[in-house]
Amino acid sequence: MSKKYVLAILGSPHSDGTVGTMLNHAASEAKKAGYEVIKINLYEKNIAFCQGCRVCLKTETCVQKDDIQEMVSLFRKCQVVILGAPVYWANVPAPVKNLFDRLLGTVMEETATFPKPRMRGKKYMLLTACQTPAPFSWIFGQSRGAIRNMEEFFKIAGMRSMGKIVCADTRRRNEIPDYIFRKIGRCWKKEQL
């Protein structure tokens, strides 16, 4: 039986914060489900800004030589990507957006009409946290903006969602509620049915 891989990407500067803890739990659940987990911290990677040359749409990888080549290889190798990113100004942090920009040609092919996905058959899970209390985090678009941004990238890539988990009101919480961990676990259980 061939190995199955999960790429767990931390898009937060706090590896032991709420998002980091959620990502670690999701990685643990992936291991229980039989996946080999590869963890990446975007804040530890050297990924330059996109130059807008669009050469990657033909070559399927960026021409700039930095840690993006490793990310391209891992995206191609894995069956599942788990992305954990906090909410910054109702969106994702800059390193996450930068990753999306730099993976343009890796995940999609440009056509005369709609982008053609290059990552079909793969899945993704999204994890985020914000300080705004629920349901206001959703009503006022705090967590919704970050989720929408992440989903757009993965949908254009042709990947299928396993789930999206939001932990709101983190300013007043000392611990992550158990229901968040249960939601993450249910995402993996659904995949095994």
Broad shape: globular
Helix run count: 8
Supply the helix-strand structural class: alpha/beta
Strand order of the largest sheet: 2-1-3-6-7
Strand count: 7
Order of helices and strands: EHEHHEHHEEEHHEH
Which key terms come to mind for this protein?
193 residues; alpha/beta; two-stranded antiparallel ribbon; 7 strands
Structure report:
It is a single chain. The chain is an alpha/beta fold. The chain is 39% helix and 19% strand. The chain contains 8 helices and 7 strands, in the order E-H-E-H-H-E-H-H-E-E-E-H-H-E-H. Strand 4 (108-109) and strand 5 form a beta hairpin. Helix 1 (18-32) packs parallel to helix 8 (178-192). The radius of gyration is 16 Å and the shape is globular. The model has no long low-confidence stretch (mean pLDDT 91).
Topology:
Blueprint: E1 5-10, H1 18-32, E2 36-41, H2 56-59, H3 68-77, E3 80-84, H4 94-102, H5 104-107, E4 108-109, E5 116-117, E6 123-129, H6 136-139, H7 142-156, E7 160-167, H8 178-192
Question: Could you give a short description of this structure?
Answer:
This protein has 193 residues and is an alpha/beta fold. The protein is built from eight helices and seven strands, in the order E-H-E-H-H-E-H-H-E-E-E-H-H-E-H.
